[in-house]
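RECORD TYPE: inverse folding
INPUT: structure tokens
STRUCTURE:
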């Protein structure tokens, strides 16, 4: 049995393929093909209250809450927070859950304690707590792994408006065993992604890519362009790679080769190997953009380090057309080329892997009646 495991890092949890083979969930039976995790949380800082919202698509935002009448909230000690939590203060319960989950404000990581306080907040129907409990049970943090219970928590959180939970569920449905998938599962995915797209860039991308490919929804390039461009402008590298094709082919937008190059350049600088090769080819060919073999050489050289054999071959072929001074210059540029993934891209890679497309592409063999 193949397993896919993600590192526990920042706001990301570990997850695995084939997890649903061990649950009797009526929704998911068999092997999942997708990683999972979206954690939402709020926590008390030493000076003010900060809400940390994690959205799929790397979307980790620290949003400073506005203080009523510009007055700072009272700083509470750990004992005071615990007392407030025991007295039913949901915000204190969420704060403590976050603190123990990530080990902040002098508190050591303690998943059992995080679970305890999130369970308290979940009893008050906190969507944040319910979603986080789903992640804890899914990953077996502070408790035994229980996929059925995790699903129940995610579903309840999504019903209460958690877009993170909605994306988690959508990915679960997409990753279900091929033998158990039905049209209703894809209808559910469409519903969940529609719910989440208002605030969640991963949902925007997945929904846009579905419209782009025409899978489980009628193909609509205008809608696809809208959703994928939103994720691209939020600095998700894969969305930037895909949106370049829209500008090159004039899909849902007028043709604009310069815009395509801009998005490919941004994705390349984030370390997207496909974007590196596409952009290098454009510079080498000089058909869609001004020919620049030196820029092409740099990009091929960088891409070759990522293990793309074709990149090394094209780099070496270009080298024959450059004098020694130019070769030394572009080699130095390649050596100094640094990848700088955006926060969104970094989060998605750690949480779901290098590609979100795979979760839709892996389902393309299914004959699905399109949703409108």
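DESIGNED SEQUENCE:
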């Amino acid at each position: 049995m193949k397993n896919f495991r993600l590192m526990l890092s920042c706001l990301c949890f570990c997850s695995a393929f084939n997890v649903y083979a061990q649950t009797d969930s009526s929704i998911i039976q068999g092997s999942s093909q997708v990683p999972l995790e979206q954690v939402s949380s709020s926590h008390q800082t030493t000076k003010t209250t900060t809400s940390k919202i994690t959205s799929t698509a790397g979307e980790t935002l620290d949003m400073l809450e506005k203080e009523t009448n510009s007055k700072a909230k009272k700083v509470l000690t750990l004992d005071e927070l615990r007392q407030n939590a025991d007295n039913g203060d949901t915000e204190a319960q969420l704060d403590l859950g976050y603190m123990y989950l990530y080990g902040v404000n002098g508190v050591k990581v303690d998943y059992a304690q995080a679970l305890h306080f999130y369970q308290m907040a979940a009893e008050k129907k906190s969507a944040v707590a319910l979603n986080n409990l789903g992640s804890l049970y899914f990953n077996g943090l502070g408790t035994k792994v229980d996929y059925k219970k995790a699903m129940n928590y995610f579903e309840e959180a999504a019903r209460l408006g958690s877009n993170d939970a909605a994306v988690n569920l959508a990915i679960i449905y997409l990753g279900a065993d091929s033998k158990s998938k039905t049209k209703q599962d894809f209808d559910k995915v469409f519903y969940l992604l529609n719910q989440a797209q208002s605030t969640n860039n991963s949902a925007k991308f997945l929904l846009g890519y579905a419209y782009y490919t025409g899978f489980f929804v009628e193909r609509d390039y205008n809608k696809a362009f809208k959703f994928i461009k939103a994720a691209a402008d939020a600095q998700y590298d894969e969305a930037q790679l895909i949106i370049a094709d829209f500008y090159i082919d004039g899909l849902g937008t007028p043709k604009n080769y310069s815009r395509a190059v801009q998005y490919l350049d941004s994705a390349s600088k984030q370390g997207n190997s496909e974007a590196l090769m596409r952009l290098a080819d454009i510079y080498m060919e000089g058909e869609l953009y001004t020919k620049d073999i030196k820029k092409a050489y740099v990009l091929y050289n960088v891409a070759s380090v990522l293990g793309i054999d074709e990149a090394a071959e094209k780099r070496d072929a270009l080298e024959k057309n450059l004098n020694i001074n130019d070769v030394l210059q572009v080699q130095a540029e390649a050596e100094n080329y640094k990848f700088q993934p955006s926060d969104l891209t970094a989060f998605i890679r750690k949480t779901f892997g290098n590609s979100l497309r795979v979760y839709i592409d892996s389902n393309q063999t299914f004959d699905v009646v399109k949703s409108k």
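NOTES: The CA atoms of residues 34 and 171 lie 6 Å apart.
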